[in-house]
């Protein structure tokens, strides 16, 4: 019990410190790769051009008064196309950044003599040719499943003692967790490194985490949630400002235009913040593949990750032992028979 108390204290203080350090290290790495930021800005510009073209189609829908709610259905179809395009562009940037981060870690720095010439150009060419099919395929599922996963986690924490409802939510959560194993952001890192298909990359990434124990770190990583909240906040600001402006121009179109603008804002912010998320995921993959890569890059950070992983594995082992003992205590005593 004393160990469990120490582990809970560790979860509340040192664990948050580790997460903050991982996030800050990723930001620092991206900041030291200005070429990566330029490619992200270029993709934001591409997304803006696509949005400008996409807006003409939406304007046509709004101009024609389609009866029986047809406007909403047409707008939904356009929104799905916009969402998928944004996911494809974001994941393309994800693969490019992951390839660059892996090269930096494996060669010991961007200025290393062993770095291949024009690594960013090669990573970009690889992402938009060989891996583009896997990127488009994975983009159909990853963002939606990750969002659903966080929503279900929030519901689980608020259920309380309703055993029936908790059982149903746990079953749904198990299904989503299974889907996450096959449609996860770490698959794109494996695509960038090994050039495999999306399904195989997702499976290999999950098996790598399971076999090395790094899954204990990944399971409690909240950097993706922080970036997701930043994306949602950007979309809310965009949608609110546009909705208020539309309200004074055409009151009946305010909700439709505001919701569409919110989606567009979320996609633009998502293309930008995916650079940091890619660096975080690449650090975890590289740590699982070969911890010496992280140790050579930043020894202090390597020590922190190793200590965090050791603590998490100890905590899980203690909890499993405690649960097993409690279940054994509940079994009927048959020694007197």
TrEMBL record:
Keywords: Membrane, Transmembrane, Transmembrane helix. It comes from the Eukaryota. One of its GO terms (cellular component) is plasma membrane. One of its GO terms (molecular function) is transmembrane transporter activity. Signal peptide: none annotated. The keyword Transmembrane helix applies. It is a multi-pass membrane protein. Its main location: membrane. InterPro entries: Choline_transptr-like. The chain crosses the membrane at residues 39-66, 73-106, 126-148, 225-248, 254-287. It is found in: Cell membrane; Membrane. Belongs to the CTL (choline transporter-like) family. Choline transporter. This is Choline transporter-like protein. It comes from Oryza meridionalis.
């Amino acid at each position: 019990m004393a160990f469990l108390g120490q582990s809970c204290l560790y979860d509340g203080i040192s664990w948050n410190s580790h997460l903050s350090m991982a996030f800050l290290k990723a930001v620092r790495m991206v900041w030291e790769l200005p070429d990566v930021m330029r490619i992200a800005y270029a993709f934001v510009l591409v997304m803006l051009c696509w949005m400008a073209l996409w807006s003409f189609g939406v304007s046509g829908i709004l101009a024609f008064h389609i009866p029986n709610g047809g406007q909403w259905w047409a707008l939904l179809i356009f929104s799905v196309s916009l969402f998928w395009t944004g996911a494809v562009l974001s994941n393309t940037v994800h693969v490019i950044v992951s390839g660059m981060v892996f090269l930096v870690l494996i060669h010991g720095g961007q200025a290393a003599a062993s770095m291949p010439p024009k690594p960013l150009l090669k990573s970009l060419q690889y992402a938009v040719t060989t891996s583009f099919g896997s990127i488009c395929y994975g983009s159909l599922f990853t963002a939606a499943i990750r969002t659903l996963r966080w929503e279900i986690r929030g519901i689980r924490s608020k259920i309380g003692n309703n055993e029936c409802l908790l059982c149903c939510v746990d079953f749904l959560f198990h299904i989503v967790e299974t889907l996450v194993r096959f449609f996860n952001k770490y698959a794109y890192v494996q695509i960038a490194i090994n050039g495999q298909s999306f399904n195989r990359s997702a499976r290999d990434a999950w098996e790598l985490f399971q076999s090395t124990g790094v899954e204990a770190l990944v399971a409690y990583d909240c950097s993706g949630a922080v970036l997701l909240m930043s994306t949602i906040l950007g979309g809310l600001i965009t949608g609110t400002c546009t909705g208020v402006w539309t309200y004074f121009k055409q009151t009946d179109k305010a909700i439709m235009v505001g919701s569409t603008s919110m989606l567009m804002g979320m996609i633009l912010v998502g293309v930008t913040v995916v650079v940091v998320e890619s660096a975080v995921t690449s650090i975890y993959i590289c740590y699982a593949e070969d911890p010496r890569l992280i140790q050579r890059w930043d020894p202090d950070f390597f020590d922190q990750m190793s200590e965090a992983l050791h603590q998490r594995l100890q905590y899980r082992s203690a909890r499993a032992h405690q649960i097993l003992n409690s279940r054994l205590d509940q079994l009927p005593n048959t020694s007197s028979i």
